[in-house]
Amino acid sequence: MAENLEVKELEQVVVRFSGDSGDGMQLAGNIFSTVSATIGNGISTFPDYPADIRAPQGSLTGVSGFQVHIGEGKVYTPGDKCDVLVAMNAAALKTQYKHAKPQATIIIDTDSFGPKDLEKAEFKTADYLAEMGIDEDRVVACPISKMVKDCLADSGMDNKAIMKCRNMFALGIVCWLFNRDVTLVENFLREKFAKKPQIAENNIKVVNAGFNYGHNTHAGVPATYRIESKNKVKGRYMDITGNKATAYGLIAAAEKAGMKLFLGSYPITPATDVLHELAKHKSLGVTTVQCEDEISGCASAVGASFAGAMAATSTSGPGVCLKSEAINLAVIDELPLVIIDVQRGGPSTGLPTKSEQTDLLQALYGRNGESPMPVIAATSPTDCFDAVYSAAKIAVEHLTPVLLLTDAYVANGSAAWKLPNIAELPEIHPHYAPESMKGNYTPYKRDEETLVRYWGIPGREGFTHILGGLEKDSDTGAISTDPENHDKMCRLRAGKVARIPVPDLEVLGDKDDAELLIVGFGGTAGHLYSAMEELRKKGHKVAAAQFKFINPLPKNTAEVLMKYKKVVVAEQNLGQLAAYLRAKVDGFVPYQFNQVKGQPFVVSELVESFEEIINK
C-alpha cells in the first residue's frame, strides 16, 4: 500500500504547529525547521506565542504557534498562510484555522476535542469541523494522546510527562508527510537532552511512532511531498534565530577587534535570549552581568566601555526609555557602546510578545539635548549577525554609541545561516590614542578628517583623563559652560556621526524604469521583496529599497527617492520612517502603507495595496 502513495515535489511549503503553551509547539517547529535547514532547504520561521505565562489549559488566549516556510531555494518570509496546520486541541483549531489556506491539510489530536475542550474553545456544536466550514477529507484526525500513552506505557513516566511528548508524535507525522529523515530528528533530540538520555530516547520512540502511523495508514492524504534543495553553496550551515545571531555577531566583533566583550543587561521579552546566549560563552572571554534594572544594565556597559571593553547592552522598547539617561552619558563622553533594541508592541508594556517597528523615532531622537547617534536596522534573522558586527565596528572606530534595531519577528524567527569565516570578516581597528600623545593627551583631541576623538584607556601611563556628564572643553577636557564651546561640541558630535561611511542604498527589481518604488526598513525586507516579485509577475514595473543604515543615511538616499514618480513607504508603525525621510529629503512626498497589528506583514495585502497605488 505504501508503495502506491504518490510523492509530489514542491518548490515550497508552509507548516504551522499550534497548541497550548505547554504543548511544545515551539520545539516541534524548531526541530522541523532545523532538519529542513540541515538538508539544504531555505527556511524562514515565525514563533507566535501568547504573553500569558501560563494561560488556562485549552483556553483561546493560551494558544502558541510556530510557522515555518520551507523552500527549495532561499525564502524571504514565513509565508502568509500555511499548507499544513497542526492543531493539538480545539482552541488551537479555532484560533489558528484563519492562518490556513483553503486546501490546507489539518492534523488534529481527536483526544483533545471532547465536550469540555469544545466548550472552552467556544464551539457551539459537537460537529466542530462543519461549524468552521472545514472539509473533513482534508483533516488527519488522529487519537494522538491515546497513541502516545500506549507508546510509552512501559517507560515508567507519569501521565503528565507522557502528555508532554504529544508534540513529537505530531512532528513524526509531519516528517513522514514531507519525507524527512527521522535520523536527523533523533540526532537533534539526543544532543538537546544529552544530560537526560532517557527523555531523549522516549521522545525518539514517539517521533518514530508518529512517522510509522503516517507510513502505515497514509494518514488520509493522497500523496506525500518532497522539497529538493537548489543552489546549494558549500559550507557549514545552522538554523539560527536573530537573537542568537546577534550574540554571535558581538562575539565575532570583539574577537576581530582584539577586545574583551561585556554585556550589561536586564531581562525583557523578547531580547532576553541575547543575554542567555552570551552567558554561555565565558570561555571566549565574554563577561555578562544581569543587573537589577535597565539603567544599571546600561550604566555598567558605559563603565566597561570606559575601561576599554567592547561594551553592549540589550533590551526592548520600554527598556530603551529607561536606559536613555545612561545612553546619553555615552553620547557626551563619546564612548563606544552597542545598544540592542528588540522592538515589541507598545506603548508602555503593550504587546510584550508581538512585533512592531515603533521605536524608530525613539532610537533617532529619544534623548535630551542634541544627541546624535548612529542607528542600524537588521533586515532578517541572519542579518542580525552582520548588522551587530557593523554596529560594533562603527562604535569602536568612531567612538560613539550605536543603536541596533531588530524586532520580535526578526529576533525570534530563524533561517538557515552559513557560518562565516572570521578571517574574511571586515577588519576592526579601535580608535586608540597613539603613543605620540603620551603625556600630552586630552580626551577630546580628534582626527581632523573623521572628527573622531582619540581613545585613551584608563591605566595607560601618560593618558590620565576624566570623563563625565557635564560638557567639556574641546581642547583641555575640563568642565566648561562656555556657550561657544558648547555650540562647537554639539556640532562636532553631530559632524562625527554624519561623516561615518555607510553603504549606498541598493535598489532591487526594475530599478531603471519602475512605476513604483517600495521603501521599508529593517525586518520587513523579506515581505516587501516578496510583494515586489509578485507584482512583477503580474507585469508591473516595480523596484524595492530597504534601509539598513538609517543614521547616517546612505549618501544616495535623495537620488534614489526622487528618481521615481511613485514611492510607497511601508512600515509597521504609523509613519515614522516616512516622516524622517520627508525631513531629510526636500520635496519627498511618498505614499504610505502602515500597520500596527503586532504581526508580520501579509504579502497578499501588500500586493493589493501597492497595485492600487500603481493604478491611480
TrEMBL record:
Gene Ontology molecular function, alphabetical: oxidoreductase activity, acting on the aldehyde or oxo group of donors
Keywords: Oxidoreductase
Domain (Pyruvate flavodoxin/ferredoxin oxidoreductase pyrimidine binding) ranges: 262-463
Membrane-spanning residues: none
InterPro entries membership: 2-oxoacid/accept_OxRdtase_asu (IPR022367), PFOR_II (IPR033412), Pyruvate:ferred/Flavod_OxRd (IPR050722), Pyrv/ketoisovalerate_OxRed_cat (IPR019752), Pyrv_Fd/Flavodoxin_OxRdtase_N (IPR002880), Pyrv_flavodox_OxRed_cen (IPR002869), THDP-binding (IPR029061), Transketo_C/PFOR_II (IPR009014)
Every Pyruvate/ketoisovalerate oxidoreductase catalytic domain range: 22-211
Keyword check for Transferase: no
Start and end residues of each Pyruvate:ferredoxin oxidoreductase core domain: 514-587
The keyword ATP-binding is annotated on this UniProt entry: no
Record-level GO BP terms: response to oxidative stress
NCBIfam families, per database record: OAFO_sf (TIGR03710)
Protein name (record): MFS transporter
Originating organism: Prevotella pectinovora
